[in-house]
Design a protein that fits this description.
- The protein is mainly alpha-helical.
- 52% of the residues lie in helices and 7% in strands.
- It is built from 18 helices and 6 strands.
- The strands form 2 sheets. The protein has a 3-stranded antiparallel sheet with strand order 1-2-3. Strands 4-5-6 form a 3-stranded antiparallel sheet.
- Helix 9 (213-225) packs antiparallel against helix 14.
- It binds s-citryldethia Coenzyme A.
- Residues 229, 232, 263-265, 267, 292, 300-308, 356, 358, 361-363 line the site of s-citryldethia Coenzyme A.
Length: 427
């Protein structure tokens, strides 16, 4: 017998079903609340509200658990590549070698963008933020590929998915090349997915370019760790925009814009800017922590805190370890890493952060690695977007499979009651 919740409103009591997830999470199903009571619920930042039932990613914020399709993030990070992880998220299972080869070949086939695409960047200022270029370019893919727009046609969706996964690294690298005034590098399909991105970012037509395997593996790891994170701000954006039945390119473009925000994916750029400011201003880590705690100061300890994790973000632990490993293998001494470690040590002992259960999140250490491999801060969030793309796609597809209505929240109106219009002479 399904568990029921009783809701007493005035003299009436109604029963609502309690839904139980496969990991024991429980939710009150309020789909019939308004029809039964005339009331709605109110939860502006959705901190208490589930938007869907999903089988893609499980997070236990209290225990610091993250699993994609049931596989623990640490095991995936150790045993898989990013493309294997992308396949897992989108198809729901780890690929066989044959399935992975076929997936990889299809991705390789779509890495180039239409030649006219290159003109698009020329309209952009040199200092255009890459996330502006990526979201605009992603949306405009719909104009180049009218044969993969119908979200209800499985074949059109499959081609659109492969095109997006293949082209986002190309689009992002072109944004960077445009910003530094270097020629765009065509994809080199002999390289791995990450190797090809590094080639398009850092190679030039004048010099041979060798992909550093240490950097390639570090970036592959970072993309795995960023690949999905259940119903975060940008994923919820992709889902609700997709529910209007607009094409996949436009839905993902909306997700890129949401991710750009400093409270979300933009935090990885914010962390490095914070660490650099501490280093350049000559203030101590303790000085900055005190500022981050002060109500009179808008500074925040960027890269700390999370809506769901009230324990360590498991991704932060893996990335912190990778920081030391990658920097040692590259022979890089990073003052920024030293400052980050000191900030973390101070914050984890400070009542302000302990009481609010603020721990390092995925963004706290990722920028240190991006910085060490030569990525400009402005590209950090675009890298996050490349990693998150398979998750956005998987969530968008799951929404289409299960949610057959457009997403349209209600509101509680607190504005003026009815009044008559005065003409301009009467006002
Ligand atoms: C990502 O949702 C996801 O899963 C996101 C993500 C993903 O993979 O998709 O994990 C990726 O976006 C990680 C978060 C990156 N953002 C940052 O690092 C920016 C800094 N962190 C915060 O702005 C904040 O912690 C959020 C936005 C991440 C979470 O915000 P919440 O859950 O709405 O919490 P809140 O802002 O209400 O903060 C609760 C309290 C407040 O203090 P009081 O008003 O109770 O006194 O904690 C304080 C906040 O002022 N606080 C911080 C802080 N984060 C929260 N104080 C100082 N420094 C911080 N970083």
């Amino acid at each position: 017998m399904a568990e029921k919740a009783e809701l007493r409103i005035g003299g009436d009591v109604i029963e609502l079903d309690v839904i139980v997830g496969t990991e024991g999470e429980r939710a009150i199903n309020i789909e019939e609340l308004r029809s039964k009571t005339g009331l709605i619920t109110l939860d502006p930042s959705y901190a208490n509200t589930g938007s869907c039932e999903s089988s893609i990613t499980f997070i236990d914020g209290e225990k610091g658990i993250l699993r994609y399709r049931g596989y623990d993030i640490a095991e995936l990070a150790e045993k898989c590549t990013f493309l294997e992880t992308a396949y897992l998220l989108i198809e729901g299972k780890l690929p066989t070698r044959e399935e992975l080869d076929k997936f990889r070949e299809s991705i390789r086939y779509h890495t180039m963008v239409h030649e006219d695409f290159r003109l698009f960047y020329r309209a952009m200022p040199k200092d255009a933020h890459p996330m502006a270029a990526c979201s605009a370019a992603c949306a405009s893919l719909a104009t180049f590929y009218p044969d993969s727009l119908d979200p209800r046609d499985p074949r059109e969706v499959e081609v659109g998915v492969h095109r997006l996964i293949a082209k986002l690294p190309t689009i992002a690298s072109y944004a960077y090349k445009h910003a530094i005034g270097q020629p765009f590098m065509y994809p080199d399909n002999r390289l791995s997915y990450v190797g090809n991105f590094l080639h398009m970012m850092f190679a030039t037509p004048c010099e041979p370019y060798e992909v550093d395997p240490v950097v390639e593996r570090a970036l592959d790891l970072l993309f795995i760790l960023h690949a999905d994170h259940e119903q975060n701000c940008s994923t919820s954006t992709v889902r609700i925009v997709g529910s209007s039945h607009v094409n996949l390119f436009a839905s993902i473009s909306a997700g890129i814009n949401a991710l750009w925000g400093p409270r979300h994916g933009g935090a990885n750029q914010g962390v490095i800017e914070m660490l650099q400011a501490i280093a350049e201003e000559g203030i101590t880590a303790k000085d900055f922590v005190d500022r981050a705690k002060s109500r009179n100061d808008t500074s925040r300890l960027v890269g700390f805190g999370h809506r769901v994790y009230k324990n360590f973000d498991p991704r932060a632990k893996i990335i912190k370890k990778a920081c030391f490993d990658v920097l040692a293998r590259l022979g890089v001494n990073s003052k920024l890493l030293e400052i980050a470690v000191e900030l973390e040590e101070l914050a984890l002992k400070d009542d302000y952060f302990v009481e609010r259960k603020l721990y390092p999140n995925v963004d706290f250490y990722s920028g240190v690695i991006y910085n060490a491999i030569g990525t400009p801060e402005s590209m950090f969030t675009a890298m996050f977007a490349i990693g998150r793309l398979p998750g956005w796609i998987a969530q968008w597809a799951e929404m289409h499979d299960h949610q057959h209505k457009i997403g349209r929240p209600r509101q509680v109106y607190q504005g003026a009651n009815e009044r008559s219009v005065q003409t301009i002479d009467e006002r």
